């Protein structure tokens, strides 16, 4: 994921927490701040130290980033997203995480039902 598409600074996280809306299920909490004024979406991740050691946390983050990439063409452009993973995620497979994250993003009404295919 390009640096341009990441939320890294605490200040950026705080803005999304204050101005964005949250949506959750048992595995994930997703904060969405619509229309960040940029022509691209940005993603911030938070995985608690309670989830396991650094290897486990990084594995979870890599899975979430990959899922976000898979959904990129179905997501609304120009939004900031923060994904906070909860404890049950540590025992989930990639497919289970994908299904759960898809559920939350649909709940947030930012994920289109089908892929946007541009006609040439």
UniProtKB/TrEMBL annotation:
Organism this protein belongs to: Sporolactobacillus nakayamae
Protein name per UniProt: Ribonuclease P protein component
Catalytic activity as recorded in UniProt: Endonucleolytic cleavage of RNA, removing 5'-extranucleotides from tRNA precursor
Any GO BP annotation: tRNA 5'-leader removal
Keyword tRNA processing: yes
Assigned EC number: 3.1.26.5
GO molecular function (one): ribonuclease P activity
Gene Ontology CC terms: ribonuclease P complex
Lineage top rank: taxon: Bacteria
Function: RNaseP catalyzes the removal of the 5'-leader sequence from pre-tRNA to produce the mature 5'-terminus. It can also cleave other RNA substrates such as 4.5S RNA. The protein component plays an auxiliary but essential role in vivo by binding to the 5'-leader sequence and broadening the substrate specificity of the ribozyme.
InterPro entries, alphabetized: Ribosomal_Su5_D2-typ_SF, Ribsml_uS5_D2-typ_fold_subgr, RNase_P
Name of the encoding gene: rnpA
Family the entry assigns: Belongs to the RnpA family.
Keywords noted in UniProt: Endonuclease, Hydrolase, Nuclease, RNA-binding, tRNA processing
Keyword tRNA processing in record: yes
Self-association state and partner proteins as the record states: Consists of a catalytic RNA component (M1 or rnpB) and a protein subunit.
Cited Gene3D superfamilies: 3.30.230.10
